[in-house]
Specification:
Elements: E1 16-21, E2 24-29, E3 32-37, E4 42-44, E5 51-56, E6 62-76, E7 79-90, E8 97-100, E9 116-120, E10 126-132, E11 138-144, E12 150-155, E13 158-161, E14 171-178, E15 184-191, E16 197-202, H1 206-212, H2 214-223
Antiparallel strand pairs: 1-2, 2-3, 3-4, 5-6, 6-7, 7-8, 9-10, 10-11, 11-12, 13-14, 14-15, 15-16
Amino acid sequence: MKLIAITLFAVAAMSVQHASAGDLIVEANRGNIFLRTSHGEAKQLTNSGRDSAPVLSPDAHWIVFIRALPGKEISTGIGDIPAAELWRISVSGKNLTRLVAPRAAENMQNVIANFDSVQFSTDGRYVFFVTPAYATSGAVHVVDTTNGKERFLMGGGGVEVIQSGEYRDCLLVGQHRHFIGGGSYDWLWLFRPDGKEIGPVGEDATKFKELFVSDTKKLQNKREPK
């Protein structure tokens, strides 16, 4: 498996991105965030012209999104990256709050440049994301939406929050590691939400999800003949 690549978000004038929960759909169009119902009713929540990649919280009360900062760049291990911020707003259009600002630092663990793989924990309190950092890998961070505290968790080229099962809220992270005798490999590893390593998953997560993610097991059981 190839290392999960970091995507650098750019706000395209005509791009539309969707995320949904129940009857609500959030989307970015022309750099602004919109909320739509399944009946087609729409409400514009932001008007900066620089917003993208909205994600709806599991309880459908909050939206996090990325806001570009034109003209600002952050130095990382892969070069200078266009800077962005991570914001949150309620579905009512109130309580607009900046959760994470970009920052430069000599230590790549402390650098925040842009945002990828933005995801909520299942209770909606924490938001996990990947930001460009090292020459061979990004960095996984988490921010607590109740107090704005953000911190580095581990290096990683991508992150997935497990939504159900025995390892609910644990993190599936793509990492680039090196053999003791030379050479390197790209595997998926499982971590607890606080960043403590549980163990290697391997090159592919299919078997892991079949064994430990309840939704996957239910789907598999439905497909098996009686």
